[in-house]
Amino acid sequence: MAAGEVLLDVQGVGLTLGGNAILRDCSFQVVDRVRQGVVTGQIVALLGPSGVGKTRLLRIIAGLDPPDVGRVTGYKGAPLLEGEVGVVFQHYPLLRHRRVLGNLETAGRMNGMGAAEARSRAAHLLERFGLTARAQLYPAQLSGGQRQRAAIAQQLMKPKSFLLLDEPFSGLDPSALGDVIKLLVEVANMDELNTLVIVTHDIEAAVVCSDAVMLLGREPNALGKGVGPAKIQRSVDLVAEGLAYQDDVEQLPRFAELVRDLKDGFRRL
Amino acid sequence: MVPTEVGFLARIKTAFLPNRSVDRLTGLLFVGFWAALAFVAWVLRPFESLPGPAEVFGALSTLWWKHGMGPELFTTLALIGHALLLTVVISLLLSYVTVFAAARPLVEAVSKLRFLGLTGLVVPFTLFVGGGYTLKVALLTFGMTTFFVTSMAQVVVEIPREQFDHLRVLGASELRINLEVVIIGTLDRALDITRQNLAIGWALITMVEGISRAEGGLGAMILNQNKHFHLAEVYAILLVILAVGLLLDFAMAFLTRLVCPHAALERVRR
Ligand SMILES: Nc1ncnc2c1ncn2[C@@H]1O[C@H](COP(=O)(O)OP(=O)(O)OP(=O)(O)O)[C@@H](O)[C@H]1O
Ligand SMILES: [Mg+2]
Questions:
Q1: What's this model's pTM, rounded to 2 decimal places?
Q2: Does A103 lie in the same domain as A61?
Q3: Number of domains chain A contains
Q4: Of A189, A144, A187, the residue nearest A167 (C-alpha)
Q5: Ligand 1 atom 10: the closest Cα is on which residue?
Q6: Structural domains of chain B in order of their starting residue, each with its CATH number
């Protein structure tokens, strides 16, 4: 497989809701990252202020809502179909009437797995996500972080190339944040073609875990306040910046510089 | 932090502060207090027309052993059981089909029929289904179904879109999504509503049984005793109706907890 092949192509997406233009001309691409001898998936962070349209764009990419204009295609220009793209929503929905294990098993059964296969895959994922001891609990009995891990594990029951996550870093303490980042990197690197799109406000976390950062924002007016529909205002290739695939990337001077720069840009959107 | 050893008086005091929970024992103490108060009031009989406990329990014993109250109770239970079964089947079907916009006006209409009441429907229903047992089942089913559909259709309509999206991105088929979200996911609510409608049906049953007395039942029994102004007997039957109603309610609550343990977990207690 050639490096730089386009895996996800968002082309000129526009969306109007209730007479308000939310997104206009929103375009970006995710390209295949290749590293010698290492399976490397893709992680793209979608940054933007609250209410700018991040969740809406995520829903369009997932095929849950159609855009008014524009289109979203996947590998080799094939259209993305509903159900091919996993989504971990903002509040980590799970089936409230099933236990954690049952939640995962049901996701497997829905995708044509047999009972035994679904059970063994679910048990394996729970083990890996540190939830084995919680397998028999109901979602209402989980902590926020456990719920998040269960929701991610549920999405992984069926192997899919795309996983979109809406605010996976909100409400986490620094050590839990580090764990989630590690987990997401691990999930991305399970397959060369895996692509994670992470929607977040957390600029540092975004730069730590991803290989590209997109800034979704409105056009600033004369007073420096964002108005009108939003589009991708800036995209940063962290591989080119030398900030991808490194432990302790936070220690690099370039990291602090870029984060400051992005925060500056963020304020003007 | 609540200290482990709280004085008796302090625990009593807590029960008189707003929005506090008390431990089980203190709670039971208050149940006992109110029950004792009610019993004392009954023994002292401030109302002349109320027969005392001895008379009522005497009448109960006579009714049970000499007038075949057991079989009458069974007749009533069979009637409510039959009507409830029909109600649950019809109402759930009607509620689930509200996922189709085309069916919504029909369901809406059934729900609105609850304002009719039963009394005026006796004659039209007799013409439809004939009299006797069938009429009673039909009336009771009609009465309960209108209320059941009202509550359950609301539950289905209010399922958040998020739940459907969640299963959609998991790759479930539309059929599977509806099975999981609309049917299995609302089972706890369906059981809860069944419980409420059992109470509605139980409250209606003596009236319905009075419409056609030939088959007997507690309702027919009450009317017979009323006719002769046997107050102690009437109260004895009321006591049985109350006790059995509470027992049925308790059994439904137990069933709900057994089948849907997650529902209790989500209820936050004060
Ligand atoms: N049904 C709707 N009708 C009209 N406007 C809507 C509707 N749904 C969302 N919007 C608007 O679309 C905009 C984008 O919403 P979206 O949920 O995508 O924001 P977001 O970037 O995810 O914000 P946050 O970070 O707070 O989650 C918001 O300004 C919102 O008011
Ligand atoms: Mg959002």
A1: 0.85
A2: no
A3: 2
A4: A144
A5: A17
A6: 1-44 (no CATH), 52-269 (1.10.3720.10)
